[in-house]
Give the backbone structure.
Amino acid sequence: MGRRMPQGQRLDNVLQAIGSTLAKLESSGILAEVVLPQADKAYAELPFVIEHGGDIYNGRIDRVIIRDNTVFVYDYKCFPVRQEEEPRLIEQYTHQMSLYARAAEGLFKLKTRALIVLANEGKVLEVAISP
């Protein structure tokens, strides 16, 4: 049976991981541009309900920011992603991001862009969505 890590050490590891992720988000500009804005046109955990293809979907969009007459829809991913895994990740989340974009477009009546924030990498990936 393996030894358990002391609770204090686990907490130190968690705090170190959080600090590392925040540093990456800050150095990439994502913290200032996506995570922190509190303007009247920025929303966190925006609830939605949408009908698509005869099905009803509901959920919450992690982050929505309206800038330059465009709605930017963000979904945060907080697990490690290697660069070679990015195309597969985009493919895996295209349906979800398309639903988010349609919901936001319906709410705000503006052009919408869908983006995935890779928090661990300090990177943003755009997801091509069909009109």
About this structure: Helices lie at 7-28, 30-35, 86-108.
